[in-house]
Amino acid sequence: MATKKQLKVTAEPGRQELFIVREFDAPRELVFEAFTDPAYLIDWLGPKDMTMAIDHYNATSGGSYRYTHTDTKGNAYSFSGVIHEIAAPERAIQTFEFEGLPEKGHVSLDTALFDVLPGNRTRLTIQSVFRSVADRDGMVMSGMEGGLSEGFERLDGLLQKLTK
Amino acid sequence: MAIQARRDVFQAIADPTRRQIIGLVARQSLNLNAIADNFDVSRPAISQHIKILAECGLIIIRQQGRERYCEVQLEPLAEVADWIEPFRKAWAHRFDKLDNLLVNMEANKKTKKDGNKKTT
User: Fold this and answer.
1) Which of A58, B2, B32, B80 is 20 to 30 A from B110, alpha carbon to alpha carbon?
2) How many whole angstroms separate alpha carbon A139 and alpha carbon A135?
3) Residues in chain A whose Cβ is within 8 Å of chain B
4) ipTM computed for the complex
């Protein structure tokens, strides 16, 4: 089906948040399920050329999660957080932290909204709010994947600048 | 504060006044007074913005006689244009996989439903 599925990532200069918006050719319940059920998450959340392992993922309000991406060289990157709210099929709110940062506590609050579109389609909007502009920029620049180590070197540099 | 130490292109363009200053000197090199004339804020405030822009590498200050001229350096801005791209690509890759998964999920649900129909 020819539909627009363009991904929009917005990170305005000087702000502590970023937005990720994408549409899907599937009903909202299904997209929500794929987004919150660890059995499905493992099929898509892993970055390119990395394996994903889920330590635990209790997708329920008050639950928590932790997962690890491992690259071909064996470098492991772990992420964890708590689930603030699972309001199926419209809203999922959780915290997110990359455990590999030099300093603990650089957490973001991620809200995922699932909107019904005509034709059994769904729009997903993720808003991530960070503790500082530097945290946000660091996250975006880390790339999260694809040149991870390079990204983290830049992030280290950024953090060093900040703590000077 | 530690955050004050941050000097890069993102810090430079985070402030609307600084973005306007870049726009002004991008057209022609200007001295401090000429730049300040374009704003309602105080001269020391403009001076501070220019100092930050210079430290972020977006402006070069050249002494010409008694005047100091601000000249724009736009190369660092290229950093901004594509800084999101790797992040965007990573998510594009994920969502492509999610598209495939959704197709499979839908197909599985349909077969389940059909299966139920057959048994009833």
Assistant:
1) A58
2) 6
3) 5, 7, 9, 11, 13-14, 20, 22, 24-26, 30-31, 33-34, 40, 43-48, 132-134, 137, 139-141, 143-147, 151, 161-164
4) 0.81
